[in-house]
Amino acid sequence: MATFSLTYPKSFDRLSNLPIVNEHDEAVCVLQKIERSTIGKVLNTMLLIATQDSLPQHYETRTTQGTPLFRVQSTLFTKGISHQLIMPDGSILPIQRKTVQLLESSYSFTMDSLIFRFEKDFTSTAYLYCNDEKIASACYVENSIVREGIVYKLFHSDDTLFVALLASLYQSLFVGSN
């Protein structure tokens, strides 16, 4: 099992470029917060006023050289919020949201004929499945009441692309929406 981590800076509101490091403290990729457009900020403010809810932030993972890897993008439609996964080549994969319990959600998408599912359990640990096999997890690292970061674990691989995918999904769908 390969373990990777992301540590929050002291000024958490300044989350912009955070390195994700391996067990040897070497950066394998970077998680970056993508600012909304002016129109997106206006829509988000209107949504916040109307429903007491807001759009999730957009987050992207990049290589340590700055090349884009994965981005989860959320768009507001009349029927609700739609999520898309933007791939390294720029192609867009729709992410399907399904309610699995009263307030919990499961997200799924198909990539290269493989069905991926991403969901969080009651302990706030999120799991990434590929064809119903658990391949990775993500959870908070906490020190008493302060969240210090996130730990990513790959169960059968040490492929940094899975870490980048997991980080983008977790930050956008579960952390960034809270």
Explain what you see:
Residues 14-174 form the Tubby C-terminal domain. This is Tubby C-terminal domain-containing protein. With 178 residues, the protein is α+β, with helices and mostly antiparallel strands. The chain has one domain (2-174). It is 17% helix and 49% strand. The chain is built from 2 helices and 12 strands. It has helices spanning 38-51, 160-175, and strands at 2-7, 17-21, 27-34, 58-62, 68-77, 80-86, 92-99, 105-111, 114-120, 126-130, 133-143, 146-154. A 12-stranded antiparallel barrel has the order 1-2-3-4-5-6-7-8-9-10-11-12. The longest helix has 16 residues, at 160-175. It is globular.
Brief sketch in words of this structure:
This protein has 178 residues and is an alpha+beta fold.
Keywords:
178 residues, twelve-stranded antiparallel β-barrel, 2 helices, globular
